[in-house]
Amino acid sequence: MNKTLYLLAICFISIQFAAAQTPLQHAIAGKWTRTLVTTDEQSGTNETQRSVRKFVPDGTLAETVVYEEEVRDNNDEIVVFSFLSSIEGKWAINGNDILIVYNCKTLKVEHLGTSFPEHDDAVQGSLRRAFEKRNKVQIKNYLSTIRNVLKGYYKHNSGSALRDVEIHGNTMTATMGKEIVAFSRELQ
Predict the structure, then answer these.
(1) What pLDDT is stored for residue 29 in this prediction?
(2) Nearest 5 degrees, angle CA 31-CA 169-CA 95?
(3) Within a 13 Å sphere around the CA of 55, how many CA atoms are in the beta-carbon half?
(4) Signal sequence span per UniProt (predicted)?
(5) What SS3 string covers the chain?
(6) Scanning 1, 65, 127, 135, which has the fewest C-beta atoms within 10 Å of its C-beta?
(7) Across the beta sheet with 31-40, what order do the strands follow?
(8) Sequential pLDDT tens for the chain (188 residues)
(9) Does residue 171 contact residue 182 with C-beta atoms inside 8 Å?
């Protein structure tokens, strides 16, 4: 009798937990894989894949959960982008000097910043509108503008800032210099 009650209690708790998960939480759940493709003139194309964890709390962005890479490069500059998401449906693209937080629920750009605050206002409005309209051509153009602005602050012309980005339901790809970073999700 006690065993039966115990099993019933476990089932009830499991059902309650499943019911508590929002559609958005369910939509972003699953196993994500980060693929970094580097093209080099000498060594050719090199592709590496890393699995990413599900939800890792991060204190740098309030109410935001990070898909953190399980293996990090020794040189942080090699880590071009990190994919962030939260139970509120925020997508963030984190480049070396650019951070964009896009809320999939409200279809709004919640934050757009660079390491050079004096340039934020010049690009925020246009890029926000491009994201909100989901206009990929405009997004590419404005990100290219940001890259050109930032390149003046670098001692080299390797295209160290964000150059290109594609966002789809289960895939996000970003191009930076000769590196292409793709995040893809395996549906459960």
Answers:
(1) 43
(2) 80
(3) 13
(4) 1-20
(5) CHHHHHHHHHHHHHHHHHHHCCHHHHHHCCEEEEEEEEEECCCEEEEEEEEECCCEECCCCCCCEECCECCCCCCHHHCCCCEEECCCCEEEEECCCEEEEEECCCCEEEEEEECCHHHHHHHHHHHHHHHHCCCHHHHHHHHHHHHHHHHCCCCCCCCCCCCEEEECCCEEEEEECCEEEEEEEECC
(6) 1
(7) 44-52, 31-40, 179-186, 171-176, 164-167
(8) 555 554 444 444 434 444 443 333 333 344 444 455 554 555 555 555 444 433 333 322 222 223 333 333 333 222 223 333 333 344 444 443 445 554 444 545 555 544 444 444 545 555 555 555 555 555 555 555 544 444 433 333 333 333 444 444 445 454 444 444 454 444 43
(9) yes
Type of residue numbered 150:
L
The token duo for 180 is 């292409």
